[in-house]
Amino acid sequence: MIKDEHLPAMQGMFPSWITSCSKDGEPNTTVISQIWYVDKNHVALSFQFFNKTKKNILFNPFAYATITDPSNMKQYNLELQFDHSETEGELFDEMDMKLQAIASMTGMTGIFELQAADVYKVLSISN
């Protein structure tokens, strides 16, 4: 599903966004710093401040995300389905380390705290 051509858009050079929907049908879109490549069929999002998004996903596990390739500004839309959360392990540690580096560079040390790496199955990718 995820091809090599999509990988530059998952490096965090440009913010991405994710849209979820509440149980009442109200959409919620939020900007996120990065969508992480996990494998050809999965991506991960850092769960830090996603209270509304997380609540929506627990009710309705489907979401849409948009990523941007910094080399050509091409955008890709990902149809996602929540799979699971990880609060430890290699993926969690890698995401936490990058998040702490970003916090350090932006003067936000101690503010950003990774609560979980939320893993999503990629159902489709379109441009």
In a few lines, what is going on in this structure?
With 127 residues, the chain is an alpha+beta fold. Helix content is 20%, strand content 42%.
Could you name the key traits of this structure?
2 helices, globular, alpha+beta, 127 residues, Pnp Oxidase, Chain A
Task: Give the arrangement of secondary structure elements.
Elements: E1 16-21, E2 27-32, E3 35-39, E4 42-47, H1 51-59, E5 62-68, E6 75-86, H2 90-105, E7 116-126
Antiparallel strand pairs: 1-2, 1-5, 3-4, 4-7, 5-6, 6-7
Task: Give an overview in words.
The chain has one domain: Pnp Oxidase, Chain A (Roll), CATH 2.30.110.10. It is globular. It has two helices and seven strands. It has a seven-stranded antiparallel beta sheet. The chain is of the alpha+beta class.
**CATH superfamily label:** Electron Transport, Fmn-binding Protein, Chain A
Q: What kind of sheet is the major sheet?
A: 7 strands, antiparallel
CATH architectural grouping: Roll
Structural class: alpha+beta
Reading side by side through the largest sheet, how are the strands ordered?
2-1-5-6-7-4-3
The CATH topology comes to Pnp Oxidase, Chain A
